[in-house]
Design a protein that fits this description.
This protein is an alpha/beta fold. The chain has eleven helices and eight strands. Strands 1-4-3-2-5-7-6-8 form an eight-stranded mixed sheet, sandwiched between helices.
């Protein structure tokens, strides 16, 4: 279910200093305020000039949690000056994916830029991403070029992307920068939920969209060493496992469950055969835990295979019901 939003600052105004504020914007910059946010008025003053320099109407859309509504009050003065700012309040604990999904229908631009609520790249990088979309790329994601970033930060990012390339493939080097520019169609057609929004470039590429990383200077505030709690690292590994399953086996679940089921049932069968031979040789097996273990492996394996078969049936029945599995970038008519 799509989370609901409550507008905080919604009505657009125009002023003599910003006559384009009331025009339909071409670029919508979305700021989901979820964690360690900077001052929002500072964020707008820092990142809006490069977007304004593009010479096209734009809007900044801030989505805040209930606790962040007071934080958004710092934008009131900018609103009174005619700056194209809109603010929405989301429910508690919605998360970045939920905020993005909820605000999607409220965005008016053909190009959507996602920007974290804290500095990750230099402001001029936003314009470079939008220009890349204008050149024909469906989604341009920022690849931070380190300017003295900490060794720990580079180590964490390197290990994360090594696991990503090993499990998923591709050549992404900074998939989780959170700074992206994309055509509106990408946001409309690629489903994101939970913490999967950080993998939006991977999911978009899987859907057939053209995705490119664009080198962008890293912001000095983002280069400080940062160590997370063990729970965060565990969640990242679980997210990678979930992504690995979706990318590799969503359309062929029997490949995964069949492999797991065959392995488990094979171990169970082997154990039961050994016990059968021992019983034929005269040994008692009725009170041996190994018997229960063999039965458990065998039954679990059969259940896994059955789940894979049910998944295959669901995929087969849902195929061709309106959702495009592949995307054709260009068609060429044969010359007669």
């Amino acid at each position: 279910m799509t989370p609901t939003l409550r507008p905080v600052f919604e009505v657009e105004t125009a002023s003599a200093s910003h006559p384009g504020a009331a025009d339909r914007p071409r670029v919508s910059v979305v700021v989901a305020v979820t964690e360690r946010p900077s001052s929002l008025d500072w964020l707008y003053r820092e990142y809006s000039p490069p977007i304004r320099a593009l010479g096209e109407p734009f809007e900044f859309v801030f989505v805040v949690d209930r606790w962040g509504t007071e934080l958004a009050q710092s934008l009131a003065e900018l609103r009174q000056e005619g700056e194209p700012i809109r603010v929405f309040e989301a429910g508690h604990g919605v998360g970045e994916s939920g905020m993005l999904e909820a605000v999607r229908t409220h965005l008016r631009g053909d190009v959507v830029v996602t920007l974290p609520a804290y500095p990750r790249v230099r402001a001029e990088g936003l314009a470079a991403l939008v220009r890349k979309v204008d050149e024909g790329v469906d989604l341009a994601t920022a690849k931070r070029t380190a300017i003295g970033g900490s060794f720990l930060g580079r180590l964490q990012r390197g290990a994360f992307h090594l696991l990503l390339r090993w499990g998923i493939g591709g050549s992404f080097e900074d998939v989780a920068s959170g700074v992206r520019a994309m055509r509106r169609e990408v946001l409309d057609e690629v489903p994101v939920y939970g913490d999967l929004v950080r993998f939006l470039p991977v999911l978009a590429q899987r859907e057939g969209f053209r995705v490119e990383e664009v080198p962008v200077p890293q912001h000095p505030e983002d280069s400080r060493p940062r160590v997370y709690s063990p729970g965060i690292y565990v969640r990242r590994i679980i997210d990678l496992l979930g992504l690995f399953f979706m990318v590799r086996f969503t359309r062929k679940p029997l490949r995964f469950f069949g492999l797991v089921g065959t392995l488990l049932s094979g171990i169970g069968t082997l154990i039961l055969i050994v016990l059968l031979l021992q019983r034929i040789g005269g040994q008692a097996i009725a009170d041996r835990p190994l018997l229960l273990l063999g039965v458990l492996f065998f039954v679990t394996g059969v259940q896994a295979i059955a789940m894979g078969l049910i998944g295959e049936i669901i995929v087969h029945l849902s195929a061709g019901q309106g959702r495009r599995e592949y995307r054709v970038e260009e068609s060429v008519r044969e010359k007669i």
